[in-house]
Design brief:
Number of strands of chain A: 11
Mean pLDDT of chain B: 96
Number of helices of chain A: 0
Structural class of chain B: mainly beta
Helix content of chain B: under 10%
Shape of chain B: globular
Helix content of chain A: under 10%
Distance between the termini of chain B: 34 Å
Number of strands of chain B: 11
Shape of chain A: globular
Strand content of chain A: over 45%
Low-confidence stretches of chain B: none
Largest sheet of chain A: 7 strands, mixed
Strand content of chain B: over 45%
Low-confidence stretches of chain A: none
Order of helices and strands of chain B: EEEEEEEEEEE
Oligomer: heterodimer
Structural class of chain A: mainly beta
Chain lengths: 117, 107
């Protein structure tokens, strides 16, 4: 069974940093690109970033460019998102999703990041 | 950036009725559009990809249509478990990947 499991969310003060992870199982990890999507409380879905299967190509939403860094460790079947210079508006549930056939075909359950003073 | 506008924001129907949800793109995305279902407290689930293809395990009562800028998700006969939020997403002009704001389907 294909599974994604996020971890590492928490409560952070504005300006702080956090690194969240997504552990994958049930598929050949390096064959697929992966994405991060977030959802602020009561709001819609907001694409954050995507990384290719090899890790050689990365893409970001303008709202996070320069503050967030996506990466992956194909030997550990794990995806990461380093989040720096956190803002109150970054408060959200962060989902990782497998980019299968150019869509998000499998999603994790999400990890919550709360930014507040 | 391609903006997706979903309508209506909220749709109130009863089990057994037909639901029609709309997603309009600010520029053509060809057929590069997906629909996701999200229930409270859960992650989204892929329903439809490439405008009209059902994802694995999705019941036949869900269908998608459209191309270019206008897309429709139809649920032919609503089941109790279909009441949820539905999001459209485009990959025709990316980055960025964009989502609509969602349509809440309520009883």
């Amino acid at each position: 069974e294909v599974q994604l499991l996020e971890s590492g969310g928490g409560f952070v003060q504005p300006g702080g940093s956090l690194k969240i992870s997504c552990a994958a199982s049930g598929f050949t990890f390096s064959d697929y690109a992966l994405t991060w999507v977030r959802q602020a409380p009561g709001k819609g879905l907001d694409w954050v970033s995507l990384i290719s299967g090899s890790g050689g190509s990365t893409y970001y939403a303008d709202s996070v460019k320069g503050r967030f860094t996506i990466s992956r460790d194909n030997s550990k079947n794990t995806l990461y998102l380093q989040i720096n210079s956190l803002r109150v508006e970054d408060t959200a549930v962060y989902y990782c999703a497998k980019w299968g056939d150019y869509y998000m075909d499998v999603w994790g359950k999400g990890t919550t990041v709360t930014v507040s003073s | 950036e391609t903006v997706l506008t979903q309508s209506p924001a909220t749709l109130s129907l009863s089990p057994g009725e037909r639901a029609t949800l709309s997603c309009r793109a600010s520029q053509s995305v060809s057929r590069n559009l997906a629909w996701y279902q999200q229930k409270p407290g859960q992650a989204p689930r892929l329903l439809i990809y490439d405008a009209s293809n059902r994802a694995t395990g999705i019941p036949a009562r869900f269908s998608g249509s459209g191309s270019g800028t206008d897309f429709t998700l139809t649920i032919s006969s609503l089941e109790p478990e279909d009441f949820a939020v539905y999001h459209c997403q485009q990959r025709g002009n990316w980055p960025p990947i964009t989502f609509g704001q969602g349509t809440r389907l309520e009883i």
